[in-house]
Write a structure and sequence with these properties.
Largest sheet: 6 strands, mixed
Cofactor: pyridoxal 5'-phosphate
CATH topology of the largest domain: Rossmann fold
Distance between the termini: 60 Å
Catalytic activity: O-phospho-L-homoserine + H2O = L-threonine + phosphate
Order of helices and strands: HHEHEHEHEHEHEHHEHEHHEHHEHH
Family: Belongs to the threonine synthase family.
Bound molecules: ligand F0G
Strand order of the largest sheet: 1-2-10-7-8-9
EC number: 4.2.3.1
CATH architecture of the largest domain: 3-Layer(aba) Sandwich
Function: Catalyzes the gamma-elimination of phosphate from L-phosphohomoserine and the beta-addition of water to produce L-threonine.
Helix content: 40-55%
CATH class of the largest domain: Alpha Beta
Number of domains: 2
Structural class: alpha/beta
Strand content: 5-15%
Number of strands: 10
Oligomer: single chain
Number of helices: 16
């Protein structure tokens, strides 16, 4: 067979792609042990219609806005897959047979598929009644043991932390797991690789604080090694009913329609604050109405979709533009990136409520269909 020197290598996921950026703790086990579902390589969407929308709000706006579509991750449809390939690979390489996590839904779904790929058992502990159905069924479908508790995410995390403290055969794959951060930082690499430079602002939803921490690490590493000339300001957004970092105190009963980020006591609180402070950024909050307005707007303006929690980063940009006086300079020709963290199909209930307004149901006849077509 003729070997073509310049044939592109098949894409094998983020660990293969960014192997030299992984710490020795991961590199020691060798590439052949990697468990990948071809995650990463997600689209960076230039949201031109959204830019025009912002210009209508504020005529001096002439920045570029990009949306990192993390719902495209091939493992389970969220950014968690980047971290999970690393966490599950390491757990498997160290001979663990069982992984466990607490989750608002996406971590669980991701853990379930990667554990299945690795032939491991997966236990997920979820807040009953507060997980979007798409995510819940993913965990079931891929064979995880799904344990729903009558309590919130924070309680679930407390419980699984205790489990792994007592039972050493089980590996915790929540974002406290350091390998998760290493995997998730690759999203920042992809952005800089594509733009040729780091954006000036990066907007991101904040729940447990893992993702903002990971992006910040990625941007810093690229900067330190000379791949980019600057780091962005990290602009995190929490939901008003679940904004412990903004308020500076844990929220006992967090409440928000954005179930993925309904977290009152983030595990990566200090790291998220460090990302905010080191980047001269900020962490602010948007209410449910603003989140859902952004959720609807995203798909109205662009052929793009995401789950409600992801929309808070776009809600954040709108808030910053509407705010008077404006306290961050996002309008003057810079590049802004928002992470849209999870896929729209994860939350069909939200989609139905927002988008399916007046369903047309008629008799099954040519005439009836034509009547409707002609009527408008
Ligand atoms: N967006 C989505 C869709 C999420 O699922 C999460 C977190 C976040 C944003 C926030 O990211 O926690 O790193 O600050 N979901 C976790 C879970 C908590 O269990 O799926 P974070």
């Amino acid at each position: 067979m003729i070997k073509h020197k310049f044939l592109p290598q098949p894409y094998k996921g983020i660990l293969h792609k960014y192997w030299e950026w992984m710490p020795p703790a991961i590199q020691w086990m060798g590439k052949e042990k990697i468990i990948t579902l071809f995650e990463g390589n997600t689209c960076l969407w230039r949201a031109k219609n959204f830019e025009n929308y912002l210009r209508d709000l504020f005529p001096y706006f002439h920045s570029e806005v990009y949306w990192k579509l993390e719902g495209e991750n091939r493992g389970s449809g969220s950014f968690k897959d980047r971290g999970m390939t690393a966490a599950i690979t390491m757990a498997a390489a160290r001979g663990k047979k069982v992984v466990i996590c607490a989750s608002t839904g996406n971590t669980a779904a991701s853990a379930a598929v990667y554990a299945q790929a690795a032939g491991m058992r997966c236990l997920v502990v979820l807040p009953e009644g507060n997980v979007a159905p798409g995510k819940l069924t993913q965990s079931y479908r891929h064979g995880a043991k799904v344990i729903q508790i009558k309590g919130n995410f924070d309680k679930a995390l407390e419980i699984v932390r205790e489990v792994v403290l007592r039972e050493k055969d089980k590996e915790l794959v929540n974002s406290i797991n350091p390998h998760r951060t290493e995997g998730q930082k690759t999203a920042a690499f992809e952005i800089v690789d594509e733009l040729g430079e780091a954006p000036r602002y990066h907007f991101i939803p904040v729940g447990n604080g893992g993702n903002i921490t990971a992006y910040w690490r990625g941007y810093k590493e690229y900067y330190i090694k000379g791949r980019s000339k600057r780091c962005p300001h990290m602009i995190g957004y929490q939901a008003v009913g679940a904004a412990p970092i903004v308020l500076g105190r844990a929220v006992e009963n967090p409440k928000t329609i954005a179930s993925a980020i309904c977290i009152g006591n983030p595990a990566k609180w200090e790291e998220a604050k460090a990302a905010r402070d080191e980047s001269s950024g900020k962490i602010d909050m948007a209410d449910d109405e603003e989140i859902m307005a952004a959720y609807a707007l995203i798909s109205e303006l662009e052929p793009v979709s995401c789950e409600p929690s992801s929309a808070i980063s776009v809600a954040g940009v709108i808030k910053e533009i509407k705010r008077i006086p404006r306290d961050i300079y996002i309008w003057d020709g810079c590049k802004i990136v928002c992470t849209l963290t999870g896929a729209a199909w994860k939350d069909p209930d939200a989609a139905k409520k927002v988008f399916v307004k007046d369903p047309i149901v008629i008799d099954a006849s040519y005439d009836a269909v034509m009547d409707v077509i002609r009527s408008n």
